[in-house]
Write a structure and sequence with these properties.
The relative contact order is 0.14. The protein has helices spanning 3-30, 34-55, 59-63, 70-94, 104-130, 139-149, 155-174, 178-195, 201-213. It folds into 2 domains: 1-57; 68-213, no CATH class. With 214 residues, it is mainly α.
Length: 214
């Protein structure tokens, strides 16, 4: 693949990512058909990933799904996780949220897959695509804004994802490792459900599914 073809491919990847976010808003807010959206989106992105891996067998390693930079990335992500958790717990206390349930850590574990998908989209596609186009210092800000817009129209969640997207992008540029950021994202994402949104993903999604299977 030539440099020009690589740039065209990167632009196409970012456009597909932004189109997916826009379509998600339509399905979630206007059609109330999240289930259909996720099935179709999963199929499209699985097809995309298979094609990209055929073209670039080392793509996942280039994204940061490796042990490269793991130790400093874990340390930095842990610092963000601790600071973020203190902020979320403080906000949850102001909002009168109940204590975290016993199954909180199970939810964190289940959230890991979704957190990895979001980090791959945010950093593996978006940040890596923006770096050749914008001054390096501005990329975390641009990525944070776009990540926040993907969470329309929930304003509190948009504010948090703006900050989270900015920090995760900055860490990724310094230490490109998705594993560390995924752990941080899963923990803070699960905590956000309970402390900010006042929702319990276990009761909304997992428990009903288990009852159906049993």
């Amino acid at each position: 693949m030539t440099a020009g073809q690589g740039a065209d491919r990167t632009t196409a990847d970012m456009l597909l990512l932004m189109a997916t976010s826009a379509i998600h808003l339509v399905f979630e807010d206007l059609l109330d058909a999240n289930g259909i959206f996720f099935v179709v989106a999963a199929a499209v992105w699985t097809w995309w990933l298979i094609r990209r891996l055929r073209e670039q067998p080392g793509l996942l390693g280039a994204w940061g799904l490796s042990t490269s930079h793991l130790r400093p990335a874990l340390a930095a992500a842990a610092a963000v996780g601790v600071a973020g958790s203190l902020l979320l717990l403080w906000l949850g206390r102001l909002l009168g949220r109940p204590p975290l349930p016993a199954h909180f850590w199970t939810v964190v574990g289940l959230y890991l897959g979704w957190a990895l998908v979001q980090q791959a989209a945010l950093n593996g596609i978006l940040v890596r695509g923006l770096l050749p186009l914008l001054p390096r210092w501005s990329v975390p800000f641009a990525a944070g804004v776009l990540f926040s817009l993907a969470h329309l129209p929930d304003l509190p969640l948009m504010a948090l994802t703006l900050l989270g997207g900015l920090l995760w992008a900055a860490l990724y540029i310094r230490w490109p490792n998705l594993w560390a950021l995924t752990l941080c994202h899963a923990f803070l994402g699960a905590l956000t459900y309970y402390e900010i949104l006042g929702r319990d993903p276990w009761l909304e999604l997992v428990s009903p599914l288990l009852h159906r299977l049993v």
